[in-house]
Amino acid sequence: LSMAQTVARAEDAMASGRRLQQVVINVAKLVNMRTDADLRQDVLDSDIINIDGTGILWAARLLGHRVEERVAGIDLMEALIAACARHGYKPYFLGASEAVLEQAMAKLRADHPALQIAGYRNGYFGTEEEAQVVADISNSGAHCLFVAISSPTKERFLRQHRDQLGVPFLMGVGGALDVVAGQVRRAPKWMRHVGLEWLYRLAQEPRRMWRRYLVTNTIFLFLLLGELARTWLSGKKRQ
Predict the structure, then answer these.
(1) Which pTM value belongs to this model?
(2) CA–CA separation, 162 vs 158, rounded Å?
(3) Three-state secondary structure along the chain?
(4) pLDDT one-digit tens code per residue, 57-80
(5) What is the CA radius of gyration of the chain?
(6) Are 118 and 92 contacting, i.e. CB atoms less than 8 angstroms apart?
(7) Residue from 114, 71, 123, 72 nearest 93 by CA
(8) Distance of CA 193 to the CA centre of its chain
């Protein structure tokens, strides 16, 4: 789906109250799904799977799939927050540190004065606290939930508790609140457009990101080359 189509589906879910779970995939998540069966199932059980990573977008097109555009998680979240402010829907935010969360909420309220926030909670809680977290979200009257926790934790939280959350639209947003709070900067648009956003993130957080990008990007490249070879051989056989 395109960004506009995804936003329309999300707004329909919030208006109707019918649950809709969205997830995005990038190179790292796709590679990890091959060895993490739970993560794979968590992703495939979602209602909408959008392409976030430019590498996935280019690979899909190279393999002949018709993909309209990349739908970055943070861009989708920002579009939906604007929709919430326009239509009176109430978002709930789960994740990030308390300091980042407070800064992000202040920024969102300043940018969207009409926005009604159903609630928010930091992402530092243990499994023994999950029942209370779920209850707080369920009792908040939220129309959408943004889970700003890293993979695979956010996917597993949503899959495990989606029936109890009582929130129409569910979405994992990773480190998006760090960006909203101004703690992490996004790559310039030209870098996003040419697929170099990963390099910008690596430059900002080398210790945390170097292994993820080095390992997963290399594996993905070999997977893509193998798939291209299989596609070429299949075409040769049909001839």
Answers:
(1) 0.90
(2) 5
(3) CCHHHHHHHHHHHHHHCCCEEEEEECHHHHHHHCCCHHHHHHHHCCCEEEECCHHHHHHHHHCCCCCCCCCCHHHHHHHHHHHHHHHCCCEEEEECCHHHHHHHHHHHHHHCCCCCCCEEECCCCCHHHHHHHHHHHHCCCCCEEEEECCCCHHHHHHHHHHHHHCCCEEEECCCHHHHHCCCCCCCCHHHHHCCCHHHHHHHHCHHHHHHHHHHHHHHHHHHHHHHHHHHHHHHHHHC
(4) 999 999 999 998 999 999 999 999
(5) 19
(6) yes
(7) 123
(8) 18
Close Cβ partners of 237 (under 8 Å, ≥ 6 residues apart): none
Band (236; pLDDT cuts 50, 70, 90) = low
**Residue 109: what pLDDT?**
97
Model pLDDT for residues 19-36, shown as the tens digit of each residue: 999 999 999 999 999 999
Q: How many CB atoms lie within 10 A of CB 212?
A: 17
Q: Give me the count of residues in the chain.
A: 239
Rounded distance, CA 22 to CA 45, Å? 10
Positive or negative: CA dihedral 172, 199, 231, 36:
negative
- Whether the Cβ atoms of residue 70 and residue 58 lie closer than 8 Å to each other: no
Tokens read off for 235: 């075409």
- Of 29, 26, 144, the C-alpha closest to 94 is 144
Cis peptide before 188 (omega within 30 of 0): no
